[in-house]
Design goal:
The structure is a homodimer of 607-residue chains. The first copy, chain A, is an alpha+beta fold. Chain A folds into 4 domains: 166 residues, no CATH class; 176 residues, no CATH class; 89 residues, Maltose phosphorylase, domain 3 (Sandwich); 108 residues, no CATH class. Chain A contains 14 helices and 24 strands. In chain A, the strands form 3 sheets. Chain A has a 7-stranded antiparallel sheet with strand order 2-6-7-8-14-10-11. A 6-stranded mixed sheet of chain A has the order 1-4-5-9-13-12, with no helix packed on it. A 6-stranded mixed β-barrel of chain A has the order 16-17-22-20-18-24. In chain A, a hairpin with a 2-residue loop joins strand 12 and strand 13. In chain A, helix 10 packs parallel to helix 12. The two termini of chain A are 46 Å apart. The model of chain A has no long low-confidence stretch (mean pLDDT 95).
Chain lengths: 607, 607
């Protein structure tokens, strides 16, 4: 199975065109300015001295790298001399400060600490992101300065880790370089990059690796050799970057054992450890996976980067196996956790994406004693001390068309529905759609013999026509297959009636509660849009939903029926609660927290 | 209104006789042994040196003092040469180490720190508890050695704080000495003790006090002068010890402004900040009151000492105002939070009394990263580093008959129902009852013209007979009044049918859930007694309850009807949950965690 990468696709109109425009015109500049202000660009000059402001941090190079990669992706679709100049300047500085041996790390180069002694210090992680940026910028512009820097750096890394074995550890504490090496291999075809990727993956968690580091730790997926890992464990971003590279490696090497781990780990996430929004990481401690069915809403961590990393892992799995479960997870992430990560104006970001906010908790403690409880942010911020998420979201959205298609010899698989035109030397495929606002997708496929359309798992009612004639193709692994479709117009109509989602009773946190979806979009209730305590609302599961177009969120607001209790004075009473009828306004989850601090919840009590 | 103190009452049989026997025969020895083992008794010798084990802690003197007071209360009702010897030895050591000036603090005397410089260091708190112990031990035995020590110490404290004003602060960081001074005043009639009490209370939170300390702080009730405080704030035990003394002072001085604060604060607690178990303190941060209606079950702090302190505050309010709301709160505490604090075998104690336990959370994080979440204990312990609760519970239960009666010129108010005989020089009153297991109370009142019986707020069906003839006395402020009852046998029959309790919808944590009570006893479900996930159980609010006598918990177990969901594989589904009928076993809340670590919940989902 081959990927049709986003470079071949133009997003023409509709929902995602607005998002890619926003990222290209607003977000990428905003992230640049915030990084500039906080010293991250200056740090590349490796001139910081003790006492200077803005002390370089171990992950700053990765922030810059993800921003460069975002610009590279944007430049694939539009010229922007200003952005290109910013990147060229940054690359010049990096190149000028690369050490003779090849090493570059703007934090280590200005600090006393001996390099390659601390596995948790993100040196290889930063190198990985810088390598991804170098590949992307070369592809976008043909400029190879950063690529040259990174190839030289990789030669040095190869010598230190694979030949001299002189580092204090064998595998990186934060995975990332593994998947970046695959990208370089895909660009160059040079097997040594695949070999280095194998080196880091194969050694992870094995006896020698553990011996070097002293502890076997789930946090960094080092508790077992990767081929023995069958469940998702530890820090979610680390984990999914590893799993992404594992899937890539399995695909290129045909390693069935590695593939089996990838499949089992994916199912462990999708069937037991994933929020309805596609978020992962139930706990802020360790930003980590916890135990199956442990998915608290209020304290959900659901880091933005984690959801993105799961989308990439899922995408790699799609290249191996034609099963819509992978594309379903991607869709869940796209329309929920990924988009909630960025504000509607494109300027601010969530690092943590909770599934509920209870504003009364914000001040429950602060006046009573000096210690404060951990409280998640209730509004997005433009930059964080640990600002991994903002440039990750910009590069993700700028390359969102990566998720559209895969192809094998005779079939084009359509995984996502986005208004777009994709051209390769073999075929041209056009989608016309207002999805997810509207469930109709018109697809014209020129030069394609057979097309496979994903029927989303949420969709229980759809119809298909080919050149106006209704057809009833068989559904297999979540796809319908239409043969002899060359030059035909295929129309897929998905029923977009909002519906109730019942969480598994194995999730102890949602007892008595349900969620609402319209298509792939998960909804939530916000306090600011309802004039009652939303936590006391009980949704009538038989309700019809009114749909009201909401300009600010670019989609529909829903109105649902239910009841709210009449507030009683008694704290505890033998009198049953009395209720009055009420209507609740729901907005897409991704649009929450764009109207100031407010109560919010996805899972609502019901009857 | 006058108190009839527990010394005049013999608890004859029934529920509370078992508890007072347990405390006298098991708990008080167990606490002694644990304190002995952990160096607390040795510390009184003030001989600890750096490098020695068991470094004395600032609150150790108060642990010993509360244990001495427990023994004093026990000695009122039974001889025990062994316990008396332990106390005499401890008092000898204290007396031998009292400084010439009168100071005694076993922690400060072996450390370098300058005395009276740190308001948060519990010096006056320890003095207060030691004073309470001295008064109690003198009353029980006539021995005045500790009383002499403490009167000398008080002279010194008076000089330092009221005359020389040489301390770095004016009022104690942890209240306690105020209420102890009232007890000494009640013993001696010497107004100077009342004056010192007034000094500490009147200065708290006023401008000079704040100036000395630098910060006005709710945590220690120092945010406002006490007469301007109208809500319960800060550290619960500190708060209620203060409120107890404020109520005492208002009663003795007729200070209406102070009384108004006490009344409003009591209502703030009882109507907005109290768990169904009588527990207070919604947050472990600061062990503090938070905001109204913030009563989470899983993270409830509900410190044992806090509930006891609220009972004492309520008792003082009963001496001012004949309103059953005060005795209702006492009853709520007696049969729930106070008793849950101690194990059924009398050996172990809870410091924190949660209203729910979810065992799956215990291991959700530890394997994923190095930091651990705060998790409450799921089983009782024999001793804590901060062991304030165990000897507080023993002294509370040993003097439980303090809560039975108050009297004014012509009426005896019966606040609690305990099988007992109370004799004063004016009257003898006997209660025969198996309450709370049985709702019938037979009362014989000799030498009493008028008796007032509290009808508990939970009780919505009762009958009364006088010498066998049914009467229908008016209910006023929660009491029924029976005139000319001298030598009569009065029988109160309360309907003990278990019932559903509906929490106010203002409490956001219990939406869709209810509790179960039988009389004053709150029930809970435990995982170990039910073969399904108790968090997924839905209680039928129309259920009948089967009552099964439970020997270990000394009361009834209940069986209720409801339903549980059929577990589905899908994490999120459009298919509504399916249910099957189920029965749930409930036990008294106070008996939870006596069968090993287990899930537990008080508030159950319902339909």
């Amino acid at each position: 199975m081959k990927m049709i990468d986003f470079r071949k696709t133009d997003i023409n109109n509709g929902f995602w065109r607005k998002k890619t425009d926003l990222v290209s015109e607003v977000s990428v500049f905003n992230v640049y300015n915030r990084f500039k202000e906080t010293g991250r660009f200056d740090a590349l000059g490796c001139a910081w001295k003790k006492g200077d402001p803005y002390e370089p941090h171990i992950f700053w190079d990765s922030d810059i790298a993800k921003w460069i990669e975002s610009v590279a992706f944007i430049l694939e679709k539009r010229d922007c001399a200003e952005l290109e100049k910013y990147v060229d300047d940054a690359i010049d500085t990096i190149a000028a400060n690369q050490e003779e041996c090849g090493y570059f790390n703007s934090c280590y180069q200005v600090h006393d600490k001996e390099r390659w002694t601390d596995r948790t210090d993100h040196e290889l992680y930063c190198a990985g992101h810088m390598l991804e940026a170098a590949v992307a910028y070369f592809r976008a512009t043909g400029k190879r300065k950063l690529l040259d820097v990174m190839e030289k750096y990789l030669d040095y890394i190869r010598k230190v880790f694979m030949e001299d074995k002189s580092a204090s550890f064998i595998t990186p504490g934060h995975e990332e370089i593994e998947l970046a090496l695959i990208k370089l291999y895909e660009l160059t075809g040079d097997k040594k990059h695949l070999e280095m990727c194998s080196f880091f993956i194969d050694n992870r968690g094995n006896d020698v690796d553990v011996e070097y580091r002293g502890v076997a730790h789930k946090y960094s997926q080092s508790h077992l050799p990767v081929r023995e890992q069958k469940t998702a464990e530890g820090h979610c971003v680390r984990a999914c970057y590893l799993y992404t590279a594992m899937a890539d490696l399995a695909r290129y090497t045909g390693d069935e054992e590695l593939l089996d781990s990838c499949k089992k780990i994916f199912d462990d996430i999708a069937e037991r450890k994933m929020y309805i929004t596609g978020g992962i990481g139930s706990s802020g401690r360790g930003e980590a996976f916890t135990i199956p069915y442990d998915l608290p809403d209020l304290t959900a961590y659901s880091e933005s980067c984690a959801a993105l990393s799961l989308a990439w892992f899922s995408q790699r799995m799609l290249l191996i196996e034609n099963d819509s479960k992978y594309a379903d997870v991607i869709e869940r992430i796209l329309y929920n956790n990924a988009l909630s990560s960025i504000s509607l104006d494109g300027k601010a970001f969530f690092y943590v994406n909770p599934l509920a906010i209870r504003t009364h908790l914000l001040n429950r403690n602060t006046s009573q004693c000096d210690t404060k409880e951990y409280l998640p942010l209730t509004e997005r911020k433009e930059v964080f001390d640990c600002s991994c998420c903002p440039p990750n979201i910009t590069r993700f959205i700028a390359s969102v068309a990566d998720f559209l298609y895969t192809t094998d010899d005779d079939t084009l698989y359509v995984h996502q529905y986005i208004d777009s035109t994709t051209k390769t030397d073999k075929f041209t495929v056009t989608q016309k759609t207002e999805y997810p606002n509207n469930g109709t997708v018109n697809i014209t496929a020129d030069g394609i013999r057979r097309i496979a359309l994903r029927i989303p798992a949420w969709c229980n009612n759809f119809s298909v026509t080919v050149d106006g004639a209704e057809v009833s193709p068989e559904l297999r692994n979540g796809y319908i297959y239409i043969d002899n479709c060359d030059s035909s117009v295929i129309t897929l109509s998905m029923d977009m009636t909002p519906f109730i989602v019942y969480p598994s009773s194995k999730i102890r946190d949602y007892t008595g509660r349900v969620a609402v979806q319209r298509g792939p979009v998960v909804y939530c209730a916000e306090g600011v849009r309802n004039n009652f305590n939303i936590m006391s609302f009980r949704l009538d599961t038989k309700t019809d939903f009114k749909e009201i177009l909401c300009d600010t969120c670019g989609s529909y607001m829903l109105v649902a029926k239910g009841k709210i209790p009449v507030e009683s004075e008694a704290l505890y009473s033998r009198e049953p609660e009395k209720f009055i009828n009420a209507e609740i306004k729901l907005i897409p989850y991704y649009a929450f927290a764009n109207h100031g601090e407010s109560d919010m919840e996805v899972f609502m009590f019901c009857y």
